[in-house]
Amino acid sequence: MFGQRITVFRLLGFEVKLDASWLILAALIVWTLGTEVFPHYYPDLARELYWLMALGGTAGLFFSIVFHELCHSLVARRFGVPLKGITLFVFGGVAEITREPPSAKAEFLMAVAGPLSSLSLALIFLILNRAGRISSWPVSLTGVVSYVAFLNLMLAIFNLLPAFPLDGGRIFRSALWAWKKDLVLATRVAAMAGSGFAILLMVGGIISLFTASPVAGIWWILIGLFLKKAAETSYRQVLWQKFLEGQKVKQFMRPNPITVPSGISLQQFVEDFVYTYHHRVFPVVEDARLLGCIHVRALKNISKEEWPKRTVAELMEKCSLKNTVSPDEDANQVLTRMNRTGNTRLLVVEDEKLLGIVSLKDMLSFISLRLELEGAGQPSWL
Question: pTM of this prediction?
Answer without folding.
Answer: 0.73
